Amino acid sequence: MTNGRGRAFLFLAVVAGLTYAFWPTDRRAAQKTQPPPLLRVAPVQSVGGGQLSSIRVNLTPSLVTSLPIQIDGPYRVQPVGNPRVLANAAKLAATTVTVTKTGFQIGRDHFPVTRLEIHPQQSPAIWINGHQYRGTVRFYRRPGTKLIAVNVLPLEEYVASVVDSEMPAAFPPEARKAQAVVARTYAMYQMGQASRDALFDVYADTRSQKYLGFQYRGAGDRLLAGESAASRKIVSETRGMVCTYAGRLFCTYYSAVCGGHTLRGTELFSDAVPAVAAVPCDYCREAKYYRWDVSLTAAELEKKVNPVVKGRTGRWGRLLALENIPPAAPGRLLEFDAKYQQGHGTIRGDRLRTALSSHGVRSPHFSIEHQSNYTLHGRGHGHGVGLCQWGARGQAKIGRGMQQILQYYYPGSEIVIVGNTVARN
């Protein structure tokens, strides 16, 4: 997406409140009986993205030539942005949407347009690739007889699915409220980054944040919930709440398990604000991947490492060792020194994690032990920037509220309640 930013102002609900203090990191300092502070409400500069009530989610991880589709109930078909009705039908049995040279084929019907939108009479109704979605679905014809599918739905309904898609229902309510606020903030921030001609705001996978829709079919065609009454209640209780820094929305990066210390946002993301800081976190100790180990043979490691070593040439010969470079400070991204017979080069931890992900490397935070083989002793799951989801769980379990959790992982931020509209770039 582009980096364009709107310049109008969001108008917020007028609610008086108090700002809340920065809370200590020591578990023993948590005050379970402390009443939650009220929210401060103030103007926030526009984030773009059109109506706050509507978000566009790309359901296709890559360009495709066709997609399975089914519609449970009456619907109409229109060109995107055009009131002209191309077709009406009582329902659509399971079939496919296919790109043709002149438009789209949906079952037996052909539509000679490059942009198509399906409007169900009731929502949720549309099934795409085994997932049922609220709202409408748009199909855009792309070069090379390819297409993408975009789900357009109310933002709060999107957030209800993200909460359940990203965080287990068994986590404490205050942790899930924090998840709702960061998911909403992340979505609105990305809406603000989208250019006027962008076809979507976010992806439905972890390139943005995980969104499973209303329900979906799992293994053995088992029907699984993508949202729940519990997640809808969490969203209702946090409706309109977002994180801001210096009066503006910011990208609320988050990951599953930080493993003891979050990573400073600017180590990985150029748009990270100072509130996306590095903070100690021992609240995620109960997570499965708080600590992990991976073993690789020297041949396996060399095969994966060679393509990502900075400056490497074929004349360097065989890889002799891969070693940690001590970080300058906690919360900094690790780097590694790859030593060859005739040279050496460095590798960033995030690039090495990507290269080794098929071997079970869960994060860019690990030390290396080298004997005949290599053993990686790692911590955490995910990039480690921003809110730690398992850390939020740990903090909620000792009595901390949503606001305290968010200000711990985003120090210097504020939570405000936004109004109903935002101006598109």
Key descriptive features of the protein:
425 residues, alpha+beta, 29% strand, globular, disordered C terminus
What this model shows, in words?
By secondary structure, the chain is α+β, with helices and mostly antiparallel strands. Helices cover 18% and strands 29% of the residues. The chain has helices spanning 155-166, 173-193, 229-237, 298-305, 349-356, 389-397, 402-409, and strands at 9-10, 44-45, 54-58, 66-71, 75-79, 87-89, 92-99, 104-106, 109-111, 115-120, 126-128, 131-133, 136-142, 146-154, 202-203, 215-217, 223-225, 241-245, 248-249, 254-255, 291-296, 319-325, 335-340, 343-348, 366-370, 374-379, 387-388, 414-417. It has an eight-stranded antiparallel sheet, with no helix packed on it. Helix 2 (173-193) packs across helix 3 (229-237). It is globular, with a radius of gyration of 24 Å. Residues 1-38, 41-51 and 421-425 have low confidence and may be disordered.
Summarize it:
The chain has 425 residues and is an alpha+beta fold. Helix content is 18%, strand content 29%.
